[in-house]
Amino acid sequence: MSSSFLKRREKVLLKAEELGLNQVLVSNVENIYYFTGFWGGGYLLLSRDGAKLFTGLLERFRAQENSFETEVITPALGVPVSSKLKEYVKGCLLADEIPFTLKEGLEKSLEVTLKVNPKIFYSMRRVKDEDEVSLLREASKLIDRLYEFSTKVIREGVSEREIASKVIGEAVYLGLDTPYVNTDFTPIIVASGPNSSFPHAQVCDRRLRRGDVVKLDFFFRYKGYVSDETRTFILGSASNDFRDAYETVLCAQEEGLKAVKAGARACDVDSVCRKVIAEKGFQEYFVHGTGHGVGLEVHEPPTISVNQCELLERGNVVTVEPGLYFPGKFGVRIEDTVYVGDSAICLTAFTKELIEL
């Protein structure tokens, strides 16, 4: 993994130099981790002189322990981290994102030039290296184990919240991480009965009843990297309406997976799934894009949707997740995390056969 950090730094410095810039300033938490291995707040300054991480005193020792070949610089207690940063920035910088007040302050007081371009960083991160794919593969295996566990806790009379708490506890036990810095996401959706008709349902105290659809969406982190998997179950015997919807979504996902390959247009993958669903007359109930990239964030480029016609690249890791949502009744979604190569390689592998619990 250590050599990967150095390769990433070299790549972003070359991109900066192509733009006539001599330093790179990073403040996004995921990007700091991408270049150093440290997960936490602060500012990372990259140059040909090396990597310098500016963070608060409370993070100093953790940053020193977790950052690869990075000088950790902290201000005195009560002094803003940005004040130390100002001692080192110079010339023209490429930045991922930066607070307006800091950008204005640096440009005015130090006469530096800041070119803010988060797309450069996302374009780097969307093509995963071998180390990243290995971590995503392990994350996916652990989430598969969570689904095996979840089938044992879904039963009549148990609340969504009780299921969520047990699954999260098992996730922590398995070595998965739950915190999502700077987002409102929790790493789990448990949606039963009519709640399953909400694509992003919130966990509540509703208790499961015989005949309920139970939709589970898990997106935990493993050593920084997120895998995303959704399965839909039925508590009891499946009705004809549910079975028809389930088989339609499964067929759409299978066709979508066949369309995923390096060089394919993202919108074409989406179109393949929509065609299957439209042929069954369900098109108005498929209300979101077919998928998205995953990595250090649960949602990152590329986006697989109607108007997103960018090409998928070898090394992308994306989800394929068609769904149908019938308001007030039930919803069905089936999602896998896949590696993009000559074809789609599923990293998640829990069974997609209809399970009646």
Characterise this structure.
With 357 residues, the chain is of the alpha+beta class. It has two domains: 2-125, Creatinase/prolidase N-terminal domain (Creatine Amidinohydrolase, Chain A, domain 1, 3-Layer(aba) Sandwich); 130-346, Creatinase/methionine aminopeptidase superfamily (Creatine Amidinohydrolase), CATH 3.90.230. It is built from ten helices and 18 strands. The strands form six sheets. A six-stranded mixed β-sheet has the order 4-3-2-1-5-6, sandwiched between helices. A three-stranded antiparallel β-sheet has the order 7-8-11, covered by helices on one side. A three-stranded antiparallel β-sheet has the order 14-17-18, with helices on one face. A hairpin with a 3-residue loop joins strand 15 and strand 16 (330-333). The longest helix is centred in the middle third of the chain and has 24 residues, at 130-153.
Question: Which helices and strands occur, and which strands form pairs?
Answer:
Elements: H1 2-18, E1 23-26, H2 29-36, E2 43-47, E3 50-54, H3 60-66, E4 71-73, H4 81-85, E5 92-95, H5 100-109, E6 113-116, H6 118-125, H7 130-153, H8 160-174, E7 188-192, E8 213-218, E9 221-222, E10 225-226, E11 229-234, H9 240-259, H10 266-279, E12 291-293, E13 300-304, E14 317-320, E15 323-326, E16 330-333, E17 336-340, E18 344-346
Parallel strand pairs: 1-5, 3-4, 5-6
Antiparallel strand pairs: 1-2, 2-3, 7-8, 8-11, 9-10, 12-13, 14-17, 15-16, 17-18
